[in-house]
Amino acid sequence: MDTTPATTPRRTLRWQTATVLSVHDEAPGVRTFRLGLTEPATHLPGQYYVLRLTAEDGYTAQRSYSVASAPDGRPEIALTVERLDDGEVSEFLHDVAVVGDVLEVRGPVGGWFAWDGVSPALLVGGGSGQVPLAAMLRHARATGRPDLVRMLVSVRTPDDLFYGEELTGPPVTAVFTRTAPPGAARPAGRLTLDDLAPLVRGGETAFVCGSPAFAAAAADLLAAAGVPDHAIRIEQFGPTGA
User: Fold this and answer.
1) 47-61 b/e (C-beta count within 10 Å ≥ 16 → b)
2) Where is the FAD-binding FR-type domain (predicted)?
3) CB 221 within 8 A of CB 196
């Protein structure tokens, strides 16, 4: 993964403490943790932070989590974490962490999947791949440029859609693969070319995020819709949450 964004100079990242300010349930097994930083650093939408836990015996475990919040100059970030079975860090965050706890983080990291906020972007996310794309959408709205982005989210059911009403309505299209909401014009089913092709305008960068299988399928559909390979950027979420 490229960790040196062209839009920002190379710098040394240090571990810093972060205080849990709030915890919010997004979907079954998914929570957003808002963290207060001691050394605020402006992130780009699409970047991530590494979160480290240290046990009393010195054992450490760390995982990388995409930032869900838009950069707004405040010394805070939001990380949305899916609870994974046997996931040391995610289990601790879901089962143990409470408001007021102090964690360690390092970031922001990542350049290849970061959006500059000024060029057209097509955002395609599946499952937990909604997280970094939500940061891009939030940034576009906060800067008054929602026209720059179009977003398609593929989830199993309406309950698996993160961030409440933020991911409904223009410029977001939601595709449900198992159960569609009542009155939905599109029946439940896998993502297809007919879903993606109308969102392609030409000249945009496509950001694809999700499981390896979802990312590969979405990239093939984008190519079939006319998006050149060099304009497709992919972030895959594996079992570690990275």
Assistant:
1) bbbbbebeeeeeeee
2) 13-115
3) yes
Positive or negative, the Cα torsion across 128, 133, 139, 145?
A: negative
The whole-angstrom separation of Cα 19 and Cα 22 is 9
**Helix, strand, coil abundance in the chain, percent, nearest 5:** 25, 35, 45
Of the candidates 137, 20, 24, the residue with the CA atom closest to the CA atom of residue 76: 20
In which order are the strands placed within the sheet that holds 121-126? 172-176, 149-155, 121-126, 205-210, 232-236
What phi and psi values does residue 237 have, to the nearest 5 degrees?
-100, 115
Instruction: Answer whether 60's CB lies under 8 Å from 214's CB.
Output: no
pTM for the model stands at: 0.91
CA nearest to 35, candidates 102, 109, 130: 102
Dist. CA 235–CA 46, nearest whole Å: 9
Q: Tokens 């979420």 sit at which residue?
A: 237
For the stretch 101-139, pLDDT in tens is 999 999 999 999 999 999 999 999 999 999 999 999 999
